[in-house]
Amino acid sequence: MLYNLNSYFRIRKPHKFIAFLHFHTCVCGNSGQFNGQEVSYYFLENPLACIGLVAYYSSFLSRTSFASSRGQPAGKGEIDETDDGYGRFRQMGSWDNGDQQDSSFDKFDEAKEFEDDDDDKEVGEDGDGDDDDDDDFMVLNSFNRNGEQREGIGRVELDEDELRHPLVREICRLIELRSAWNPKLEGELRHLLRSLKPRQVCAVLRSQADERVALKLFYWADRQWRYRHDPIVYYTMLEVLSKTKLCQGARRVLRLMARRGIVRRPEAFGYVMVSYGRAGKLRNAMQVLTLMQRAGVDPDLSICNTAINVLVKGNKLEKALRFLARMQLVEITPNVVTYNSLIKGYCDLHRIDDAIELIAEMPLKGCYPDKVSYYTVMGFLCKEKRVKEVRELMDKMVKDSKLIPDQVTYNILIHVLSKHGHGDEALKFLREAEERGFRVDKVGYSAIVHSFCKAGRIDIAKELVNEMFRKGCFPDVVTYTAVLNGFCLEGKVDKAKEMLKQMYKNGCKPNTVSYTALLHGLCRSGKSSEAREMMNVSEEEWWTPNAITYGVVMHGLRREGKLSEACDIVREMIRKSFFPTPVEINLLIQSLCREGKMDEAKKFMQECLNKGCAVNVVNFTTLIHGYCQKDDLEAALSLLDDMYLNNKHPDVVTYTTLIDALGKKGRIEEATEFTMKMLKNGLDPTPVTYRTVIHRYCQTGRVEDLLKLLEKMLSRHSCRTVYNQVIEKLCSFGNLEEADKLLGKVLRTASRIDAKTCHILMESYLSKGIPLSAYKVACRMFNRNLIPELKLCEKVSKKLMLEGKCEEADRLMIRFVERGHISPQCQEHLGT
């Protein structure tokens, strides 16, 4: 035998052995020439047995082929893939059987998980914390100032032609069919994938509405035979993920780049950092700098700007300032982008004066502010209604920074001022822009018109619209709709109708928003039926009502008490796939219950459930409360069972409603059972729950049962005034004996609330003609350093004297004298 089975363990280059095995499985059992000699091949009796060894080494190579990608030369224990033999073996495509590959589409939806690299294991995924992140800033100290910066890939700009390429559109179509996937469609997708250019792959990833689908497609494509992602695809995938909170996916793509030998530029780490920042994991975002250090990538200005921006967005301005100081220590000079991020951070914290001061200091640091620096501060000044300072800052921009206001400057100021309700100031800037030769378009005019309409200044808004016509700047549907809505807000519906006709006359077709504004005005004016008729003829007017339109008319009909028509509106909504919100459903149920139409309300809610509307526990609770108000407790309990059948679990409000209804009927045992069930389900009682339980138990005189139940409720959620409420409620029901027994629990804290409770008990004793008991309550208050009300004690003293208990009366008043609340002369006067 020429070779034995153990010889492959001594072969240092297994990929050559694979080529050898593949060759000999084809000629096993034959004889021929080998190196000029006649040789008979008896390697194995069954040539198919070699396939197992081939598969073994193929999988071995696939697991170790990325060792060299980690920056290490091929050497001991690693594979050198430069040999042409194995390369030709892979090109033969013996296992690349096209659509017959064993990878079902289910794997597309199961994103491949890559294990952590060794250099990543120390970086936790703990999320944001209160720990100081300055340790991560120390990475900048290892920055190689003299290192050569390699050219980066940057952002991949795609043309419209690439986004609309037939291959790109076809792949997007196949991806949309993934719910009905089959091997044939997967084969088509695999075939098309190999025909795509790298930029077209980027176009496919960016075309996905759901970034998670793009990530799954990225993983799926990476697992395909004879396909490898181009570096720009990795960067595009990271860019897509940076706009989401999918930080774990971005981290895995970054690890995969290392495994595939893709050069990882600081931009790649920046994308991961931004994704962590969006997810609120600021600590992990800053630890990306540590990953850069371990990967041997030197930080540059772009990654530093990204770090500062992430800290600013996370409201960590002080850490951003410390990071800036560390940058300067390692001679990374900040630019205007760095300072603009800090300016925005100051503004977000309402430290606008500090932001203005930073703008003034920038020239001293060798970096001059740009217009964005000023625009940021101007916007926040408008937001805080410091409009006068906007003009001062604009003058400073011209004088100090030599930045001449242009068309963009005026447009920004006009829009920001209009947005925050400063229409007059926005109009002044519009006049100034026109004086300087700038032409403000209809968008700027519309913003000012909308601001005046919101403020109820419709006449000025109409003058601006007429001015637009004179200047040849014809208003669009947005401008007209703003004026129309202003008329509706003032209740001038007739003028709003005239404005609608004027829109048609001037060749501007009203849209759904225009009609919705008019319908809202009609409903506010009590003309909901007219609004309903107008919506019925919407198809004739060539406009389509949307969910907001239906909601406006439904609320109008509901407010006018036309509940049947309002329910019909909701049914029509559902037929047209406009589902009402739980709030809208609840308002209608509440109105029906208020009129006692319980069966109609239940039928309406059941219809919403059957049609797939988002009916929640609040809707069920409203209906249960309606049945309880109607004293139909059995129907309310039946509806509770329906909640469980529809997987809607009752909340504390639901239980409180039923406890109150059961207590009202005297069914205290069932009320106790529901209370215990509420506690068992982990629901904390609210103050309303405590008041309900106390009222119903005191009403029936079940004080002992009440106290036992309150102890269990207090163990779940404490209530400071619970025993005060019990005493006051017992006093209202005349059960003074039980109230007096609980007085000790109240006087433990001796607060103002406790004093008020004691006064209520004293007044109850006086009304019952028992002044001695009221005197005892006052004495207990004095013993707890609580001073009872003087006027009330004077009444008690007079009652005691009338009953011949002068000693107790004098002793009570002496207590006030001892504490300096009345003089001895007043005491003698009271005694006489």
Protein architecture, described:
With 832 residues, the protein is mostly helical. Among the domains are: 93 residues, no CATH class; 195 residues, Tetratricopeptide repeat domain (Serine Threonine Protein Phosphatase 5, Tetratricopeptide repeat, Alpha Horseshoe); 100 residues, Serine Threonine Protein Phosphatase 5, Tetratricopeptide repeat, CATH 1.25.40; 65 residues, no CATH class; 70 residues, no CATH class. It contains 45 helices and two strands. A two-stranded antiparallel ribbon has the order 1-2. Helix 30 packs antiparallel against helix 31, helix 34 runs antiparallel to helix 35 and helix 42 crosses helix 43. The longest helix is centred in the first third of the chain and has 16 residues. The radius of gyration is 40 Å and the shape is extended. The termini are far apart. The N terminus is likely disordered.
